[in-house]
Amino acid sequence: MHFFNKTVVLVVIMFACVLGAGKVAFAGIYIQPYLQNPQPDGITILWWTDDSERNCRVQYWRGQFENDAIASNEYIPSMDKWVHESKLTNLSEETQYQYKVVSGKHSSKTYTFNTSKRRDSNFHFAVLGDGRTDNDTVIGRHRKIARMAVSFGDDIIFEAGDMVENGATEHWGRFYRRVITASDTNDPGSDLASKIPYHTIVGNHEIYLDKTGYPGGNLNTAMARYKALVANPKNGSANSNWEERYYAIKYGCATFIVLDNNNDLSTTGYDNHDRLGDNDTPPWSPGNEQYKWMVKQLQDAQKNSVFTFVLFHPSPYSRGVHGDPCDAQRGIEIRVLDPIFRQYGVDAVFTSHDHFVEHCLTGPVGFEKEMNIADANNLNWLVMGNSGHTSRAQSPGWEEWMDILGNDAPPYYTVYFYDWAGDHTLCSFYDVDIIHRGKGFWQATFQVVRSDGKIFDTFSIDRKDPLRKKQSTPPTNEPLSVNPRARIFRKKSTSP
Ligand SMILES: [Fe+2]
């Protein structure tokens, strides 16, 4: 071989080695680290590797001082991967730390996390729903809207179910590696979940194992994967299958109560999923364990939090196909919870399941005369099922199940219904800004942010801190401010 050719070959080999070395550091990390369960003094970090690894740990620091926290190294048969989890404690509240994770010879990039906001601090959160993972186009939209939520400055993000097309390993991989973390080297997602807690809610598609359906609720496969992938707060259920399926998180001055009400028992009259059997999912109706747990959370939240938000997947008030009382996977039975939500002062319920955006209002007898969104006696029901999957229109006959007085005529529960039905290129999320107005008065401002930057259905509610006993007069009722980034795109809300 001529000298020139030898030189070229050598350079090519050296270049290949450099490229290879560059990949070694991340090669064994299947899912990059992501944050769960933020607390004033702690946070939980998980990541996944292809193989068992020694000496798994989180290295975290603030300034020069460096700490190590030991992490688990557990094989998850349903994923055929190894999960590593570390619960960091004794942290300072509302403080940013830098961190990276180490598993044997593998090490992640350096990211940041924040402990949760103090109770008297303003904060910002987002709710997505039905982002899904069906194909590259859906994944692209899901990723884009999640990234957009981060750009609005969210401190914590929730997705109200149907994050995946089904609960197979492939689809969980798509969601975690290509949407909420930058783990897939060929098509990395946003690294948002490595920096912001991203909490999920079980929807029917998480239970749905594959194209063959739901049998058994897939407790050993799809739901075993869900439970291994998340680190939701404990709910104390007597049935270990239901741990992490429903949970509550306190963040700042708010309590978030997450339910799994995808199905109930056939004996209660509230069975809301014809293809799931009894005890394939945690029963949710009055008298059941999840219901009793929920009431305790509602009572505690009413006493101690300024705002109470409830999140679950099926929508009881929806113009869509799943709002139809005859649909096989309907939400209408969940209307039985409306009075108790209002009794305990729930401020908004976020759902998903129908692939659109809808805002409904319920209230005590006669509320329909004013339809006052801001009245604390009324309850705002927000459907956000437009965060990735193709959008849908209202379902024929919706006037029958959406009229308030039961006479197949107006007034309807809906106060806002999106006007981009059928345009699959557009997706959206709910953005919520929590602001202290002073003297114990707080304001929550909600808005739908669309992928093209346009804003819809902006509204605010004002609430008083239950822990502030001293009498005071509320500040002037003008909205204080919303996220400055949101104001850039602000546009007059569109009416239904
Ligand atoms: Fe769904």
What is shown here, in short?
The chain contains nine helices and 22 strands. By secondary structure, it is an alpha+beta fold.
Question: What does this protein structure show overall?
Answer:
By secondary structure, the chain is α+β, with helices and mostly antiparallel strands. The protein folds into 2 domains: 23-114, Immunoglobulins (Immunoglobulin-like, Sandwich); 123-488, Purple Acid Phosphatase, chain A, domain 2 (4-Layer Sandwich), CATH 3.60.21. It has helices at residues 3-27, 136-151, 169-178, 204-207, 222-229, 289-304, 338-343, 398-401, 484-488; strands at 29-39, 42-49, 57-62, 65-70, 74-76, 81-88, 96-103, 106-107, 111-114, 123-128, 156-159, 198-200, 247-251, 254-258, 307-311, 348-351, 357-362, 379-384, 414-417, 428-438, 441-450, 455-464. The strands form 4 sheets. Strands 13-14-15-16-18-17-19 form a 7-stranded mixed β-sheet. A hairpin with a 4-residue loop joins strand 5 and strand 6. The radius of gyration is 23 Å and the shape is globular. The protein binds fe (ii) ion. Fe (ii) ion (FE2) binds at residues 161-162, 203-205, 313, 353.
CATH superfamily of the largest domain: Metallo-dependent phosphatases
- Low-pLDDT stretches are 6-25, 479-496
Instruction: Give Rg in angstroms.
Output: 23 Å
Mean pLDDT: 90
Q: How many distinct helices?
A: 9
Shape: globular
Q: What count of structural domains?
A: 2
- CATH class of the largest domain, named Alpha Beta
DSSP E strands, number: 22
